[in-house]
Each structure stands twice: as C-alpha cells, then as structure tokens.
Amino acid sequence: LATPAARRKAAQKAKKSSSNGGFAKKPRPAAAAIAAPQTQQPTTNNVQYDDAQDEVAKRAVSSLFSVCAHIQDPKLYQPKWADACVQQNSESGDGISPKIGAVMANRDVARGQVLTLFPIHALGLRMLRQNSDDEALKDTEFVAYDQNADGELFTTSEKAGLRLKLNIPLDKSQPAHSILGNKKRHVLFSMFLPEKQPKPGWLGGRMKAASSQYSESNCITVPLPGAAPLCAVVATTDVKEGEEIIQAMQPLKPSVMDELKGSVAKEYRRELATLQMYIEAACETVQQSSSQVDSSSGQQQQQQLGPFHQLNQKYPGLKRIHQDPDIYSIDNFLTNEECDRLIAKSQPHLVPCLVKNDKTGIAEQDPVRTSTNTNVPQSEVPSIVEKMTNVANCCADQLEILQVLNYKKGQEFIPHTDGFSGKFDACGFEQASRQATIFCYLNDVSEGGSTNFPEIGLAIQPKKGTAVIHFPADLELREDTRTLHQGAPAVDEKWLLTTWVWNRPRSDEMYAESRLPPLSSGDII
Ligand SMILES: O=C(O)CCC(=O)C(=O)O
Ligand SMILES: [Fe+2]
After folding, report:
1. Ligand 1: residue whose CA is nearest its atom 9
2. CA 382 to ligand 2 centroid distance, Å
3. Closest C-alpha to 250, from 205, 214, 198
4. Considering every ligand atom, which ligand is closest to the CA of 468?
5. What's the 354 CA to ligand 2 centre distance in angstroms?
6. Which atom of ligand 1 lies closest to the CA of 449?
7. Global pTM exceeds 0.80
8. 212 — pLDDT class (breaks 50, 70, 90)
9. What's the rounded Cα separation, in Å, for the pair 21 and 127?
10. Residue 318 contacts by C-beta under 8 Å, 6 or more apart in sequence?
11. By the 8 A CB rule, do 407 and 522 touch?
12. What residues flank ligand 1, with Cβ below 6 Å?
C-alpha cells in the first residue's frame, strides 16, 4: 500500500469492519512467553485474552488519540517550551552544511531539557493474543487516526520507511496506565508520518537517527511524565545552538532514562500539568464508559495471592530488593571462576532459543526471544546446584534443566512472566508449576541488557556473579502477573544462567539429567 490513494481505499474498507478508528488485522507469529530449552517439550504460557478488556483498551486509544490530535492544532496550543529546534528547509550559505531536512537546535539546550515534542499522527494498540485457533482472533493492531488526511490506516504491509512506530511503555505514574495497564497483552505505540506538515514544537521523528555509533547521538524520545502517550525529545548531552539533532537508536539504561524523566518533570512542571489535564480527561471518558462493562463479562480482577515459596533466609548475602512482590538478590552468589568456566563450557554449544508456537506445538525461533542458549547438566556444575538448592530450600530434582543464555547486541527477551496458573505437565514435571525463578549473571554488563520488571519499576543491571530470585506463582499455583519482566535489548554482550524451582520433583524419564548431552569435561566444583 505504497500510495496514499491505496492506503485511503484500504482505510475505508477497514472502517467498515471496525466500530471506530481503523482496524488493521495483523497476523503475527504466536508468541508464547515461556521459552523452551532445546531438548525439552516447551511449555505454554496460558495468557488469557479478554474481549471486554480489548474493547476498553481500544476506546482508550481512540480517546487518547483525539485528545492528542487536538493538542497538536497550533490554533489551540503552541508548545513554545518545546520549540528548541527547527528543520532546515534551504541550503545554507556555505553550501556544505547544514543539509536540507536536518533538524538543528535554535538555542543552547542543556542535558535533560526538551528539544521538541514527538507528534502523534496516529495511535496504535497491538493486542497480543495467544492460544487461539480462530484466525479472526490472532494478534491485531488497532489504529486510531485522523480521518481527514492521507495515510490514515497503517497496515503491516507498509514498509517501515513510510512511518515510524514508537512503542510507549506506561508506568504506574501515567494516567493512561489505569486504562491500558495490561502490558502482557497491550502494546501502545505512536505513529509518525514524515509526509505530514511539520508543526513548530512537534519536530520529533524528523531528526536523523544515530547510526551505529552510540556516542554520536544527542537526544532520546521519552514519554512525558504524567502525559504519555505524548512524548518529548530530550537532550542527552548539552546541545549548542546550530548543532544538528541526532536521535539515539539504542535504548538507554533505565537509570539514565529515569534521570531524564525526572529532570523533565521538574523543569516543566507547569507545562506538563496542562498536558496531564488533557490526558486525564481522555482517560476519565474511557473509565466512565467502561464502568458499564461488568466484571462477570471478563474484566480481570486482581486475584488475591497467598504465601509464596520460602527461601533459606539464612543464606549468606541474601537481600530483599523488592517487597510485594518479593524479589531477592545475592551478590557474588557465583565466584568469578564459576562464571568464567560456565561461559567457556557453554560457548561452543549455543543454539538459538526456541519458543513454543501455541498453534502448531512446535518449538521454533521467535522474535520474542532472540538470544542463544544451551542446557547445562547438573553433574557438570555441582557447586552451583548445591548453592541453588541451599538458597531455594529445595532438592536438585525440583530444578528445571539449567540453561545458559547468551545475548549479543540487539538480542532480547520481551516482557513475559515465567509462571503458570494451575498445574501443568511441562519440562519433565507432572501436574506441577514453577514457584521461583533463579537467574545468575555471568558477566558485568554496562550498557543495555538489564532485567526490567516494568509493573513494579525495577531494573537490574547485570553484575557478574549476582543471583536474582523472584516468584512467578504463589503456593496455590496462582500466577503473580506483577512479576512481568524482560531481558532488555543487549548493547554489551550478556551471559546468564537460569533455572526455575518447581513445587515437586522432575519425574518424566524423558527429561532425566542423564539424557542431557555433556558440555565438556572438567566439572565446576
Ligand atoms: O535475560 C534476562 O535478563 C531475563 C531472562 C528471563 O527472563 C528468562 O530466561 O526467563
Ligand atoms: Fe523470564
């Protein structure tokens, strides 16, 4: 759909089949969130989808879009506070620089200040659906757009160059979180169309993107505190008047991102309060209209959770780094030698991580988990198994087959939970469930690759030898969705050892430790 006319036609067609906005159906590969070790039957993550919840989310997107479109009308609102750059539209005197189209700072801007805002030409919602055999219920993208302009409907067949999609994570401090809070299912994204007229203060998306050199960028796009999906382009270095604005394409460390958001929140308190008012009003409209959707029709209730698996609280160095849901860490859980030897053992055996396709039942490569991994027989790492069973108060048979994961630049594991609701037959365990996740970082990682728990605002930067333990389900085998987590895209290479503690021993002979192929001679003891 390369031409505006073709897109318009498609948009009209799609409008007929949708209640509001544009409805672009997007078949996507089934994205099971539980990754499978190579030699095992992968397991499914039984994500429930819920039509009522989707309807509320779609209404939220439409409502947020109409408010955002309204704000972008220069007759109504001019963001002078975010008007620190211009787009070059004629050749300068020397004929060398700046280039036509380049976005340049029109004043000095300090790190943490806003350069411009990111325009919202359409607002989209990716709805991840799994476990569905029905074609009509595959993953879809709902897009709310301006019905009077070209290019209203964005289908996945359009080339990435035609528009820019920006995923917008919503933390709990965002008003939109309350109406779009199901991060496991709903991905909010904003769309930018280069062919739209640029508006002063809304030049985001028009600047050059940094190529591979991370260091050459001077800004990044961040959701406006309290006013997402509106986003600002924020300076990541001090920028001089006349300097070209170049956007970083790599994710920043969560701590740096938080610092930038903090400085924007502080410096532009008044301006943000105005925008927040608009966004809150849009959210209230949705809340009012969705209050009719009664809980029996599927609104997910936060289930009461009971006690969780107990760790050995006397384990040396055990620290609780988050309470309710509890997350623990232990520095130097593995020695440097254990980490180095485990990497050396695993390196020659790495294969792409597989994820179960819920439709076919086949374990296959999937963009949800792009790292490589290998299984590690317990017999080759007795000292590590001994520490794990000691801290987790369990026997070695309760540990799922150990895996070493390797993430190279750009590789990631998208947000997922490790647990199940109820009993399952999986990974050699029968009528059982995962109670705890233990992972250990095998190297220090300074850029990218953090393990993020977005529901609780926790980000952990990998530190060599540190173990992290969380609890995907309670003792009654009810999943705790607050433990949603991701392996953020790696910048530096990252190595991780991971396993899960089940509530009963591994029993299926097919998954016996003795069947695992050895990695190398020389056990780590
Ligand atoms: O890579 C990470 O930081 C997390 C890995 C993970 O979540 C998993 O293996 O289940
Ligand atoms: Fe995980």
Report:
1. 498
2. 23
3. 214
4. 1
5. 13
6. 3
7. no
8. low
9. 15
10. 311, 312, 328, 330, 391
11. no
12. 35, 405, 413, 418, 439, 451, 485, 487, 496, 498
Q: Which atom of ligand 1 is nearest to the CA of 462?
A: 3
Q: Give the residue whose CA is nearest to atom 1 of ligand 1.
A: 487
Band (pLDDT 50/70/90 cuts) for residue 70 is: confident
Q: How far is the CA of 437 from the centre of ligand 1 (A)?
A: 9
Strand partners, 496: 405, 441
Q: Are 156 and 239 in contact (CB under 8 A)?
A: no
Return the C-alpha torsion angle 160, 152, 50, 305, nearest 10.
Answer: 60
Q: Which residue has the higher pLDDT, 212 or 449?
A: 449
Which numbered atom of ligand 1 lies nearest the CA of 412?
A: 1
Helix 269-290 vs helix 51-71: angle between axes, to the nearest 10 degrees?
A: 140
Between residues 289 and 345, which one has the greater pLDDT? Answer: 345
What phi, psi does 109 have (nearest 5°)? Answer: -130, 130
Mean pLDDT score of the chain = 79
Give the pLDDT of residue 291. Answer: 57
From CA 173, how far away is CA 59, in angstroms rounded?
20
Which DSSP string do the residues of 404-450 spell out, in sequence order?
A: EEEE-TT--EEEE----SS-EEETTEEEE-EEEEEEEE-S---SB--
Which ligand neighbours the alpha carbon of 369 most closely? 1
The answer to whether 52 and 300 are in contact (CB under 8 A) is: no
Q: Ligand 1, closest atom to CA 403?
A: 9
- Cα of 439 from ligand 1 centre, angstroms: 7
Structural domains of the chain in order of their starting residue, each with its CATH number? 4-290 (2.170.270.10), 318-515 (2.60.120.620)
Provide mean pLDDT across the span 68-86.
89
Q: Which atom in ligand 1 lies closest to the alpha carbon of residue 450?
A: 3
Q: Tell me the per-residue pLDDT of 356-395, one tens digit each, with 9 for 90 and over.
A: 665 566 667 776 778 899 999 999 999 999 999 999 999 9
Q: At what angle do helices 269-290 and 254-267 cross, to 10 degrees?
A: 100
Which residues lie below 8 Å from residue 134, measured CB to CB, with a gap of 6+?
Answer: none
| Torsion angles phi and psi, residue 99, rounded to 5 | -80, 150
